[in-house]
TrEMBL record:
This is diguanylate cyclase. The chain crosses the membrane at residues 12-29, 227-249. The keyword Kinase does not apply. Gene3D superfamilies: 3.30.70.270, 6.10.340.10. CDD domains: GGDEF (cd01949), HAMP (cd06225). Residues 251-304 form the HAMP domain. Residues 484-494 have a biased composition (Basic and acidic residues). Residues 475-494 are annotated as: Disordered.
Length: 494
């Protein structure tokens, strides 16, 4: 029954089921909204705990005053902010333009300065020594101020201790967090990997600054786990429905199209669609499959015809330049691999341009056709003959004996001469010049391109000697490819 459904009906039913899945999926949006609301509420609560302290912090930064923020009461105030893990105050004094830095770490339960320098400690020590000297060697005027000196010495000593403790804490305190970049327009970022809030709040003093704060957000992620549990349950239900839907759709629509796609992915000549079940369907897929099958059969027929036409010279019926390019080097390498002798014969019709100019191209085509037939008849069944240019032919001969090269070359030359086609040359007939090259199995350094160049040079030697003759040469391993063509020609005959 399913296979009798049209694609339109199939898509309608599949979309109907997809709507049901989307309705179930709306629960995800509900939970996502709940999560966002809880995050915003937690962030607002944390920020609300910090904002009332910004005024005091800004005043301390403006006057570069540390004493108030380092007091135990202030540390207790920081500690009482629920879920505050870390605080970093950075700014610039409004009066001295000096940097201000203060940190609070919950796990250490410490507040310390983050920008203490050695010069500052040295200055505090020097001031303490000066006060102690004044106490130990009082002048008449200072004797009346001994109580105040003692207070100043105690305060200076406490300041030195604070400075030294701050340096020690700055160097030794382990701070596992690194503040991320907070997007413009937002005061915080929630880290999903560390389960913390990162806050950056601006100070209120004239020269500015900011408070960097880290709040524990692990309680949010227990809620997130509950949301995930609910989503997983809903997803499981959706998955069951989706599996049923996918199986049904693939059975009626996708799988048949995949069969067609696999066929179309093959080379056209390798495609065989005659056994596909889709050809028997009565719906749109069946129409498509039959159309593709018809087109494939037509294309295969056309390709066979085109391959034959591209491989065959239309005028002579001999294999053409395309066939020559595909077969010559492969034939050359195969004979060498089998340690056979190989003959390369390059032929050219003598004074053919003069013939065309005198008798016309129509007569010239007739001459080429007659010579091609004569060459074909002069060669053996396993010899290859190609027309590679207007009046140029190449023959490749597997040889069991070197003497057959001369025999076949002469048979080709004489067969053309026996045609006695009239010409206005000295001979009075159309003739053929032949370059014949014997390639021995031991000539391993030579490529087919080198060998053809040698055979072509022999052809021109035959023409230089008066045409209507054969020039024969041999390639041997003793002659490197760089030697001249004259050095590689071993014999010549007419």
């Amino acid at each position: 029954m399913l296979q009798r459904l049209s694609i339109k009906q199939t898509l309608f039913l599949s979309h109907l089921l997809l709507v049901l899945i989307l309705i179930l999926g709306m629960s995800y949006s509900r939970y996502q909204t709940e999560w966002t609301t809880r995050v915003n509420f937690a962030a607002g609560t944390a920020e609300g705990a910090l904002v009332p302290m910004l005024h005091d912090i800004s005043l301390a930064v403006a006057g570069r005053s540390y004493s108030k923020l380092l007091m135990p009461q202030k540390k207790a105030q920081f500690h009482n902010i629920e879920k505050l893990l870390y605080l970093d105050i950075q700014g610039t004094s409004d009066y001295s333009n000096k940097d201000y830095g203060l940190r609070y770490h919950r796990s250490l339960n410490k507040v310390w300065r983050s920008n203490v320098t050695l010069q500052e400690i040295d200055a505090a020590k020097a001031k303490t020594q000066e006060l102690e000297h004044a106490r130990n060697h009082p002048s008449n005027q200072q004797k009346t101020r001994m109580q105040k000196l003692e207070f100043l010495i105690n305060k200076s000593t406490r300041d030195i201790n604070i400075l030294q403790d701050s340096v020690h804490l700055e160097e030794s305190a382990f701070i596992p967090w690194q503040f991320p970049a907070i997007p413009p327009g937002k005061d915080y970022v929630l880290s999903y990997s560390e389960h913390v809030f990162y806050f950056k709040l601006p100070l209120l003093n004239r020269n500015g600054g900011h408070v960097l704060a880290i709040f524990d957000a692990s309680h949010l992620f227990s809620l997130k786990k509950q949301i995930y549990d609910a989503l997983i349950a809903e997803a499981f239900v959706s998955l069951i429905i989706s599996i049923i839907l996918v199986y049904w759709v693939s059975h009626t629509l996708v799988e048949p199209l995949r069969h067609l796609a696999r066929q179309m992915g093959k080379d056209v000549e390798a495609m065989d669609m005659s056994q596909l079940e889709e050809l028997k369907r009565n719906d749109e897929i069946g129409v498509l499959a039959r159309g593709i099958n018809t087109l494939t059969l037509q294309t295969q027929s056309q390709m066979k015809l085109l391959r034959h036409e591209s491989a065959t010279d239309a005028l002579t019926g001999l294999p053409g330049r395309n066939s020559y390019a595909q077969q010559a080097e492969r034939f050359f390498n195969q004979t060498r691999a089998e340690n056979q002798l190989l003959g390369i014969i390059v032929c050219d019709i003598d004074n053919f341009k003069l013939y065309n100019d005198t008798f016309g191209h129509g007569r010239g085509d007739d001459v080429i056709k007659s010579i091609a037939d004569a060459m074909h008849d002069a060669m053996r069944s396993d010899d290859l003959c190609f027309r590679i240019g207007g009046e140029e032919f190449v023959a490749l001969l597997p040889l069991s004996d070197a003497k057959f090269l001369n025999i076949i070359a002469e048979r080709i030359r004489s067969s053309v001469e026996k045609l006695s086609i009239p010409h206005i040359t000295e001979n009075g007939i159309v003739t053929l010049s032949v370059g014949a090259l014997l390639v021995t199995p031991s000539a391993k350094k030579w490529t087919y391109s080198n060998a053809f160049d040698e055979a072509d040079a022999l052809l021109y030697k035959a023409k230089d000697k008066g045409r209507n003759r054969i020039a024969i040469g041999t390639l041997t391993p003793h002659k490197p490819c760089s030697t001249t063509k004259e050095e590689n020609r071993s014999s010549e005959t007419t």
